[in-house]
Amino acid sequence: MAIIDGKVSLQHVVTMESLTNEEVLGLIQRGLAFKWGEATAAIDQPVYVSNLFFEDSTRTHKSFEMAELRLGLNMIDFDAKTSSVNKGETLYDTILTMSALGVDICVIRHSEVDYYRELIESPTITASIVNGGDGSGQHPSQSLLDLMTIYEEFGRFEGLKIMIAGDLTHSRVAKSNMQILKRLGAELFFAGPSEWYTAEFEPYGQHVALDDIVEQADVLMFLRVQHERHDGNGHFSKEGYHQLHGLTQERYHRMKESAIIMHPAPVNRDVEIADALVEAPKSRIVRQMQNGVFVRMAILEAVLQARATK
C-alpha cells in the first residue's frame, strides 16, 4: 500500500485498519475530485471485475456497479442463487475459479467475518479483493463514503464530536468508523440500548444517553436496527425504540444549526429516524448514497493502480 504519482495504490481493500491516514485522505480527495467532474484515466487494456454478493444489498452493490461503469470496467455477472455455491462450493473455491478465469477484481459481501483473510493470503488467487461487508465485521467502502461526507461538510475530522447510535454490536459500519474516526482526531460518543454497547467500543468512546449529546454533536450517525442478526428472543417495539433511542422531531430541533444527520441505510423509518426527517435540511443520507459512487471509484482506481505497477 502506498501513494504513487499522487494516487493511492492498494492491492486489496478489506479493512479500515489496514489503511494509513494518508491513504484514507487520498481516497477521500480522489472521491471528491471525481464528484467535481475530474475525468477518469484511460485504461490501456480490459479490466474484469465481478461483484459477488452473498447477502442482500442495494446501495453497496449498485453503487459499485455504477462506479465500475464510470471507470469503464468490464463486469462479469455473478448470482449466488444460480451459482455452484448451491452445490456446496466454498467461497474460496468460487474466488479461485473467478481468478483462474481472468477476473481482476472481486468485490465481495459475505456473512462470514474476516472471510477475506484466506483469499488475500492465497498464493494462487491473483484477483484483488475489495470487501463489500463481512458479517458484523468491517465495511470499508461505507466507512470511506461516510468520511467523505463528513469531510465535504466540515473540511476536517479533528475536534468534531461524532455520535454513533443504535445497533452497535451488529454494525460493521460502527466498527469501521470508530477505528478510523478516532485515529483522525474525532471525539466519539455511542448511544442506544446499553446492551448493544460492549467492551470492544470502550477504547473509542463513552456510552451516553442520546438526550445528553444531541445538542453537542456535530454529526449524529444512526444505525439500522438489524433484525435479521438478532436471535429473535424478546419483543421489539418500534415506537418504544424510536422514543428512547431515535431521532424524533423534538430532538431534531435541539441539534446544533451546523450539525448533520447520517445513516448507512436502509433506514427503518420511524424507528432510528422519524420518517419526515430522512430528507430534512440537516440530513445527509441522500448525499451519502451519492458519495458512495465516487469513493468506490477511488477505491477501484487505487486497486487498478497497484495492479498496474506490480
In CATH, the architecture of the domain at 143-289 is 3-Layer(aba) Sandwich
How does the overall form come out from the CA principal axes? globular
Radius of gyration: 19 Å
- Specify the structural class: alpha/beta
| Strand portion | 15-25%
CA distance, first residue to last residue = 12 Å
Number of strands: 11
CATH topology of the domain at 143-289: Rossmann fold
N to C succession of SSEs:
EEHEHEHEHEHEHEEHEHHEH
Low-pLDDT runs: none
Spatially, the strands of the biggest sheet line up as 9-8-7-10-11
- CATH top level label of the domain at 143-289: Alpha Beta
What is the percent of helical residues? 25-40%
Mean pLDDT metric: 94
Oligomer: single chain
In CATH terms, the superfamily of the domain at 143-289 is: Aspartate/ornithine carbamoyltransferase
Number of helices: 10
The main pleated sheet reads as: 5 strands, parallel
Write structural notes for this entry.
There is one protein chain. The chain is α/β, with parallel strands linked by helices and 310 residues long. The protein has a domain at 143-289: Aspartate/ornithine carbamoyltransferase (Rossmann fold, 3-Layer(aba) Sandwich), CATH 3.40.50.1370. It contains ten helices and eleven strands. It has helices at residues 21-35, 59-71, 91-101, 117-121, 140-154, 172-183, 210-213, 238-245, 249-254, 285-308; strands at 2-4, 7-9, 48-53, 74-75, 105-110, 128-134, 161-165, 187-191, 205-207, 219-222, 260-262. The chain has a five-stranded parallel β-sheet with strand order 9-8-7-10-11, with helices on one face. Strands 4-3-5-6 form a four-stranded parallel β-sheet, with helices on both faces. Strands 1-2 form a two-stranded antiparallel ribbon. Strand 3, helix 2 and strand 4 (74-75) form a beta-alpha-beta unit. Helix 5 (140-154) crosses helix 10 (285-308). It is globular, with a radius of gyration of 19 Å. Heterododecamer (2C3:3R2) of six catalytic PyrB chains organized as two trimers (C3), and six regulatory PyrI chains organized as three dimers (R2). Its EC number is 2.1.3.2. Pathway: Pyrimidine metabolism; UMP biosynthesis via de novo pathway; (S)-dihydroorotate from bicarbonate: step 2/3. It catalyses: carbamoyl phosphate + L-aspartate = N-carbamoyl-L-aspartate + phosphate + H(+). Catalyzes the condensation of carbamoyl phosphate and aspartate to form carbamoyl aspartate and inorganic phosphate, the committed step in the de novo pyrimidine nucleotide biosynthesis pathway.
